[in-house]
Amino acid sequence: MTDAKAVSAGPISAAPGTRSAGLVPIDVGEGRLVEVPVMVINGASPGPRVAVTAGIHGAEYVSIAALREVARDLDPATMRGAVVAVLTANPAAFAARSIYVNPLDGRNLNRVFPGDTGGTASERIARWITDNVIGGSDVFVDMHCGDMNEALVSFTGIEEIGDPEVDARTRALAEAYGLRYLLIGPSPGMTTGAAAALGIPAILGEVGGQGRWPAEDVALHAAGFRRLLKAASVIDDAPDSPRFETEVLHTEAWMRSTTTGYWHPAVAVGDRVTAGSLVGTVLDPFGRTLESPVAPMDGVVIFLVTSLAMNAGDPLLALAG
Ligand SMILES: [Zn+2]
Questions:
Q1: Tell me, what DSSP letter sits at residue 167?
Q2: Which of 270, 267, 216 is nearest to 247 (CA)?
């Protein structure tokens, strides 16, 4: 709970009833800095501190656009508690339109949490976020979408830590977000895993992808985050919940290519597939089949790589069941 006092994330500090925003320089080693845009919106009344990040993956535009929209619209005069928002967590990846990795070190920022102050660029950004944004919060939200080369179904993801009170609160907040699927499973190296290790309810939100940021996807992501803020008692008004039931899925299988070539999926995102069924083919430049991967389990295609270019070791798709 904040006690109607100043709330800070590193050098960005907001008095009760105000917002503050700026670029935070983070030393990423070798004499380099990245400037991370941060906004702190501090309610006039006490309440929970909600930390939120977008752009951990720099080419996930729906999440970046949605968080900026919500953060700008929040009215600190009527809020309880505070929202600490990292608007674009991986600015070098954003500038480079880089999929998966931070170009400063070739690492996936969402695999190096909680980070390391003496590590690579990504590890240092992760550590700053863990210490200044996630740490000390009552709720943590990480907004993502499919990467530049990925389509996905809308879903939230949570991890159960074995504390019934925290797990119930996390589940309720994820359900408030109101997306089509809720995936429950561990998230090692991820922002949400770092938050869970600190006993903080943590929710991953995923809407849209493929390097686009259509208004309807931005609105869906923004509405989900607003509903979460309402469920956390930070704000009073949020869009109504969607009419569909959220489906809970527990097991997730990432399928990866073992060859480098040309990817022709045989399934669409959202399809239900059965174990042993063909999900696509990887061809060589002349059209000969290099591999014909089959589903390892029954499940829903949660995300699907949509680029023709495929590299050995890269994801093809993920299933959840
Ligand atoms: Zn992502």
A1: H
A2: 270
- Ligand 1 centroid to 54 CA: how many Å? 9
In whole numbers, what is the pLDDT of the chain averaged over residues?
A: 97
Backbone angle region of 192, left / alpha / beta, with phi > 0 → left and psi within -120 to 50 → alpha: alpha
Distance of alpha carbon 165 from the chain centroid: 23
Give distance in angstroms: CA of 18 to centre of ligand 1: 30
What confidence tens digit (pLDDT) does each residue in 90-132 have? 999 999 999 999 999 999 999 999 999 999 999 999 999 999 9
With vertex at residue 320, the alpha carbon angle to CA 182 and CA 63, rounded to the nearest 5 degrees, is: 50
Distance 115 CA to ligand 1 centre (A): 17
Shortest CA distance to 294 belongs to which of 308, 309, 282, 311?
A: 282
Ligand 1 centroid distance, CA of 27 (Å): 23
pLDDT tens string 2-18:
457 999 999 999 999 99
Q: What is the number of helices (H) and of strands (E) in the chain? A: 6, 20
DSSP H/E element including 12: strand 12-14
User: Which single residue is written with the structure tokens 């929710």?
Assistant: 203
- Which tens digits make up the pLDDT trace of 70-91? 999 999 999 999 999 999 999 9
Ligand 1 centre to CA of 289 (Å) is 30
Interval 241-298: pLDDT, tens: 888 889 999 989 999 999 999 999 999 999 999 999 999 999 999 999 999 999 999 9
Tokens of 207: 């809407």
Q: How far is the CA of 63 from the centre of ligand 1 (A)?
A: 9
Residues forming beta bridges with residue 253, ordered by sequence position: 319
